[in-house]
Amino acid sequence: MKIFISADMEGISGVATNQQLKTPSEYQRFRKLMTADVNAAIEGAFNGGATEVVVADGHGNMSNIIIEELDPRARLVSGNNRVMCQLEGLDESFEGIMFVGHHGREGGSDVTVISHTLAGICVEEMKINGKVVGETEMNSYVAGAMGVPPLFISGDDAYVKEVQETLPEVEGAVTKRAVDRFAAELLHPEVARKEIREKAEAAVKKAKQAKPLVIGEGPVTFDLKFKGPQQAKMTTTLPTVELTGPKSIRFTCDNMVTAYKHMWGCVIIAMTATNGVLGSVNA
Ligand SMILES: [Zn+2]
Protein backbone atom coordinates (compact mmCIF):
# COMPACT_ATOMS: atom_id res chain seq x y z
CA MET A 1 0.00 0.00 0.00
CA LYS A 2 1.48 3.33 -1.15
CA ILE A 3 0.98 6.43 0.99
CA PHE A 4 1.78 10.01 -0.03
CA ILE A 5 2.75 12.64 2.55
CA SER A 6 2.51 16.36 1.80
CA ALA A 7 4.68 18.08 4.40
CA ASP A 8 4.51 21.76 5.32
CA MET A 9 6.24 23.64 8.13
CA GLU A 10 3.84 26.05 9.87
CA GLY A 11 1.94 23.28 11.65
CA ILE A 12 5.03 21.37 12.76
CA SER A 13 5.34 20.86 16.51
CA GLY A 14 7.37 23.69 18.06
CA VAL A 15 6.59 26.33 15.39
CA ALA A 16 4.88 29.51 16.62
CA THR A 17 6.18 32.36 14.44
CA ASN A 18 7.35 33.12 10.92
CA GLN A 19 10.72 34.35 12.23
CA GLN A 20 11.53 30.85 13.44
CA LEU A 21 11.26 29.65 9.84
CA LYS A 22 13.15 32.58 8.31
CA THR A 23 16.01 33.49 10.67
CA PRO A 24 18.92 31.33 9.38
CA SER A 25 20.07 29.96 12.76
CA GLU A 26 16.53 29.25 13.96
CA TYR A 27 15.54 27.75 10.62
CA GLN A 28 18.11 24.96 10.99
CA ARG A 29 16.46 23.90 14.27
CA PHE A 30 13.03 23.89 12.70
CA ARG A 31 14.17 21.83 9.71
CA LYS A 32 15.11 19.14 12.23
CA LEU A 33 11.74 19.42 13.98
CA MET A 34 9.97 19.18 10.61
CA THR A 35 11.94 16.09 9.65
CA ALA A 36 11.12 14.50 13.02
CA ASP A 37 7.36 15.14 12.68
CA VAL A 38 7.45 13.67 9.16
CA ASN A 39 9.34 10.65 10.50
CA ALA A 40 6.60 10.13 13.10
CA ALA A 41 4.00 10.11 10.32
CA ILE A 42 6.10 7.72 8.21
CA GLU A 43 6.49 5.35 11.15
CA GLY A 44 2.76 5.48 11.84
CA ALA A 45 2.01 4.82 8.17
CA PHE A 46 4.23 1.74 8.06
CA ASN A 47 2.79 0.51 11.39
CA GLY A 48 -0.65 0.89 9.84
CA GLY A 49 0.19 -1.26 6.80
CA ALA A 50 1.92 1.03 4.30
CA THR A 51 4.58 -0.64 2.17
CA GLU A 52 5.79 2.49 0.36
CA VAL A 53 5.82 6.13 1.45
CA VAL A 54 6.65 9.15 -0.71
CA VAL A 55 7.06 12.51 1.01
CA ALA A 56 6.75 15.80 -0.89
CA ASP A 57 8.41 18.71 0.91
CA GLY A 58 5.92 21.55 0.38
CA HIS A 59 7.11 24.56 2.39
CA GLY A 60 8.89 27.67 1.14
CA ASN A 61 11.73 26.58 -1.13
CA MET A 62 10.45 22.99 -0.78
CA SER A 63 13.91 21.81 0.36
CA ASN A 64 13.50 21.85 4.14
CA ILE A 65 13.45 18.18 5.11
CA ILE A 66 16.91 16.83 5.96
CA ILE A 67 17.23 13.73 3.78
CA GLU A 68 19.97 12.07 5.84
CA GLU A 69 17.71 12.27 8.92
CA LEU A 70 14.60 11.00 7.12
CA ASP A 71 13.27 7.49 7.79
CA PRO A 72 15.16 5.47 5.13
CA ARG A 73 12.00 3.59 4.15
CA ALA A 74 10.59 6.78 2.58
CA ARG A 75 11.49 8.64 -0.62
CA LEU A 76 11.59 12.44 -0.72
CA VAL A 77 10.47 14.87 -3.42
CA SER A 78 12.59 17.97 -2.79
CA GLY A 79 13.20 21.20 -4.75
CA ASN A 80 10.79 23.77 -6.10
CA ASN A 81 10.45 23.78 -9.89
CA ARG A 82 7.41 21.52 -9.79
CA VAL A 83 4.46 21.63 -12.13
CA MET A 84 2.36 19.85 -9.47
CA CYS A 85 3.45 22.12 -6.62
CA GLN A 86 2.89 20.41 -3.21
CA LEU A 87 1.65 17.22 -4.90
CA GLU A 88 4.58 16.40 -7.19
CA GLY A 89 4.94 12.61 -7.28
CA LEU A 90 1.28 11.83 -6.52
CA ASP A 91 -0.61 9.55 -8.91
CA GLU A 92 -3.42 6.97 -9.01
CA SER A 93 -1.22 4.25 -7.53
CA PHE A 94 -1.43 5.74 -4.01
CA GLU A 95 -4.07 4.59 -1.51
CA GLY A 96 -4.03 7.64 0.70
CA ILE A 97 -2.61 11.10 1.30
CA MET A 98 -1.53 12.58 4.63
CA PHE A 99 -0.86 16.25 5.44
CA VAL A 100 1.87 16.80 8.03
CA GLY A 101 2.57 20.23 9.55
CA HIS A 102 -0.03 22.10 7.53
CA HIS A 103 -1.87 25.30 8.52
CA GLY A 104 -5.19 27.12 8.25
CA ARG A 105 -6.23 29.17 5.25
CA GLU A 106 -5.84 32.90 4.76
CA GLY A 107 -8.83 34.66 6.32
CA GLY A 108 -10.22 31.54 8.02
CA SER A 109 -12.84 31.93 10.74
CA ASP A 110 -10.51 31.03 13.63
CA VAL A 111 -7.02 32.31 14.29
CA THR A 112 -4.55 29.70 13.11
CA VAL A 113 -0.76 29.80 13.34
CA ILE A 114 0.82 31.50 10.28
CA SER A 115 -2.40 31.13 8.32
CA HIS A 116 -2.16 31.66 4.57
CA THR A 117 -3.18 30.02 1.31
CA LEU A 118 -0.22 28.76 -0.72
CA ALA A 119 1.60 32.10 -0.96
CA GLY A 120 0.95 34.65 1.79
CA ILE A 121 2.59 37.37 -0.29
CA CYS A 122 -0.16 37.32 -2.89
CA VAL A 123 -3.20 35.09 -2.23
CA GLU A 124 -6.10 36.65 -0.33
CA GLU A 125 -8.70 34.00 -1.12
CA MET A 126 -9.06 30.91 -3.24
CA LYS A 127 -12.36 29.34 -4.34
CA ILE A 128 -12.99 26.15 -6.28
CA ASN A 129 -16.41 26.03 -7.94
CA GLY A 130 -17.53 28.72 -5.51
CA LYS A 131 -16.25 27.08 -2.32
CA VAL A 132 -13.50 28.80 -0.32
CA VAL A 133 -10.60 26.41 0.22
CA GLY A 134 -7.32 26.20 2.08
CA GLU A 135 -4.33 24.21 0.87
CA THR A 136 -5.44 20.94 2.48
CA GLU A 137 -8.91 21.03 0.92
CA MET A 138 -7.53 22.06 -2.48
CA ASN A 139 -4.87 19.35 -2.46
CA SER A 140 -7.49 16.83 -1.34
CA TYR A 141 -9.66 17.68 -4.37
CA VAL A 142 -6.66 17.08 -6.66
CA ALA A 143 -5.86 13.79 -4.93
CA GLY A 144 -9.56 12.94 -5.16
CA ALA A 145 -9.45 13.35 -8.94
CA MET A 146 -6.81 10.59 -8.87
CA GLY A 147 -8.98 8.44 -6.57
CA VAL A 148 -6.69 9.05 -3.57
CA PRO A 149 -8.49 9.75 -0.24
CA PRO A 150 -7.21 12.13 2.48
CA LEU A 151 -6.43 10.17 5.64
CA PHE A 152 -4.60 12.30 8.17
CA ILE A 153 -3.68 15.88 9.04
CA SER A 154 -1.40 17.44 11.67
CA GLY A 155 -1.16 21.06 12.75
CA ASP A 156 -2.64 23.47 15.28
CA ASP A 157 -6.07 22.90 16.84
CA ALA A 158 -7.85 25.58 14.76
CA TYR A 159 -6.41 24.15 11.53
CA VAL A 160 -7.61 20.66 12.42
CA LYS A 161 -11.09 22.01 13.21
CA GLU A 162 -11.18 24.03 9.97
CA VAL A 163 -10.25 21.07 7.76
CA GLN A 164 -12.55 18.63 9.54
CA GLU A 165 -15.52 20.82 8.54
CA THR A 166 -14.89 19.61 4.97
CA LEU A 167 -13.17 16.32 5.80
CA PRO A 168 -14.82 15.01 9.00
CA GLU A 169 -13.35 11.53 8.59
CA VAL A 170 -9.65 12.43 8.59
CA GLU A 171 -7.59 11.70 11.68
CA GLY A 172 -6.26 14.96 13.12
CA ALA A 173 -3.14 15.17 15.29
CA VAL A 174 -3.01 18.48 17.19
CA THR A 175 0.56 19.75 17.66
CA LYS A 176 -0.28 23.04 19.47
CA ARG A 177 -3.08 25.36 20.50
CA ALA A 178 -3.28 28.44 18.29
CA VAL A 179 -3.19 31.61 20.41
CA ASP A 180 -2.68 34.10 17.60
CA ARG A 181 -1.45 34.07 14.03
CA PHE A 182 2.04 34.39 15.51
CA ALA A 183 1.70 32.68 18.89
CA ALA A 184 0.87 29.18 20.09
CA GLU A 185 0.73 27.10 23.24
CA LEU A 186 3.09 24.34 22.19
CA LEU A 187 3.12 20.69 23.10
CA HIS A 188 6.55 19.20 23.58
CA PRO A 189 7.59 17.75 20.20
CA GLU A 190 7.87 14.25 21.69
CA VAL A 191 4.27 14.47 22.92
CA ALA A 192 3.06 15.80 19.57
CA ARG A 193 4.97 13.13 17.64
CA LYS A 194 3.43 10.33 19.70
CA GLU A 195 -0.01 11.56 18.63
CA ILE A 196 1.15 11.94 15.01
CA ARG A 197 2.49 8.37 15.02
CA GLU A 198 -0.63 6.88 16.61
CA LYS A 199 -3.16 8.78 14.50
CA ALA A 200 -1.22 8.17 11.28
CA GLU A 201 -1.26 4.45 12.05
CA ALA A 202 -5.00 4.50 12.79
CA ALA A 203 -5.64 6.50 9.60
CA VAL A 204 -3.71 4.12 7.33
CA LYS A 205 -5.45 1.11 8.90
CA LYS A 206 -8.76 2.64 7.71
CA ALA A 207 -7.45 3.64 4.27
CA LYS A 208 -9.42 0.98 2.38
CA GLN A 209 -12.71 2.44 3.67
CA ALA A 210 -11.73 6.10 3.17
CA LYS A 211 -13.48 8.11 0.47
CA PRO A 212 -11.73 10.52 -1.91
CA LEU A 213 -12.90 14.15 -1.88
CA VAL A 214 -14.30 14.71 -5.35
CA ILE A 215 -15.32 17.94 -7.01
CA GLY A 216 -17.67 16.13 -9.38
CA GLU A 217 -17.92 15.80 -13.15
CA GLY A 218 -17.47 18.73 -15.48
CA PRO A 219 -15.24 21.78 -15.67
CA VAL A 220 -13.52 23.26 -12.64
CA THR A 221 -13.56 27.01 -12.00
CA PHE A 222 -11.07 28.77 -9.76
CA ASP A 223 -11.65 32.26 -8.37
CA LEU A 224 -8.48 33.80 -6.98
CA LYS A 225 -8.38 37.06 -5.07
CA PHE A 226 -4.91 38.54 -4.77
CA LYS A 227 -3.54 41.09 -2.31
CA GLY A 228 -2.46 43.60 -4.97
CA PRO A 229 -3.95 44.61 -8.35
CA GLN A 230 -0.55 44.24 -10.05
CA GLN A 231 -0.58 40.55 -9.07
CA ALA A 232 -4.02 39.96 -10.58
CA LYS A 233 -3.37 41.97 -13.73
CA MET A 234 -0.19 40.14 -14.75
CA THR A 235 -1.96 36.74 -14.67
CA THR A 236 -4.09 38.00 -17.60
CA THR A 237 -1.04 37.43 -19.81
CA LEU A 238 -2.62 33.95 -19.95
CA PRO A 239 -5.55 33.99 -22.40
CA THR A 240 -7.57 31.70 -20.14
CA VAL A 241 -7.64 34.24 -17.28
CA GLU A 242 -10.49 36.73 -16.86
CA LEU A 243 -10.16 39.74 -14.57
CA THR A 244 -13.32 39.82 -12.39
CA GLY A 245 -12.31 42.76 -10.17
CA PRO A 246 -9.25 44.93 -9.52
CA LYS A 247 -7.62 42.11 -7.55
CA SER A 248 -9.69 39.10 -8.64
CA ILE A 249 -9.40 36.61 -11.48
CA ARG A 250 -11.29 33.57 -12.74
CA PHE A 251 -10.40 30.68 -15.01
CA THR A 252 -12.01 27.37 -15.91
CA CYS A 253 -10.34 24.11 -16.89
CA ASP A 254 -11.64 20.72 -18.01
CA ASN A 255 -10.59 18.87 -14.86
CA MET A 256 -9.17 19.31 -11.37
CA VAL A 257 -5.57 18.34 -12.15
CA THR A 258 -5.30 20.78 -15.07
CA ALA A 259 -7.01 23.48 -13.00
CA TYR A 260 -4.50 22.94 -10.14
CA LYS A 261 -1.56 23.40 -12.49
CA HIS A 262 -3.21 26.51 -13.94
CA MET A 263 -3.76 27.90 -10.42
CA TRP A 264 -0.10 27.30 -9.60
CA GLY A 265 0.96 29.06 -12.80
CA CYS A 266 -1.16 32.08 -11.83
CA VAL A 267 0.29 32.13 -8.31
CA ILE A 268 3.84 31.97 -9.72
CA ILE A 269 3.06 34.95 -11.96
CA ALA A 270 1.39 36.83 -9.11
CA MET A 271 4.33 36.25 -6.75
CA THR A 272 6.84 37.51 -9.29
CA ALA A 273 4.61 40.49 -10.14
CA THR A 274 4.62 41.71 -6.53
CA ASN A 275 7.58 44.04 -7.13
CA GLY A 276 7.80 43.90 -10.92
CA VAL A 277 8.25 40.68 -12.84
CA LEU A 278 11.82 41.33 -13.92
CA GLY A 279 12.93 42.82 -10.62
CA SER A 280 14.46 39.65 -9.23
CA VAL A 281 15.95 37.97 -12.32
CA ASN A 282 18.95 38.80 -14.45
CA ALA A 283 17.03 38.69 -17.70
ZN1 LIG B 1 4.45 26.43 4.45
Automatic annotation (TrEMBL):
GO molecular function, one term: metal ion binding
Alphabetically ordered keywords of this record: Metal-binding, Zinc
Residues that bind Zn(2+) 1: D8, E10
Binding site for Zn(2+) 2: D8, H59, H103, E135
Keyword Zinc: yes
Pfam family, one: Peptidase_M55
Alphabetical list of CDD domains matching this protein: DAP_dppA_1
InterPro entries: DppA_N, Peptidase_M55, Peptidase_M55_sf
Presence of keyword Metal-binding: yes
Family matches, as SUPFAM superfamilies: Dipeptide transport protein (SSF63992)
Domain of life: Bacteria
List of catalytic residues: H116
Name of the molecule in the record: Peptidase M55
Originating species: Neobacillus piezotolerans
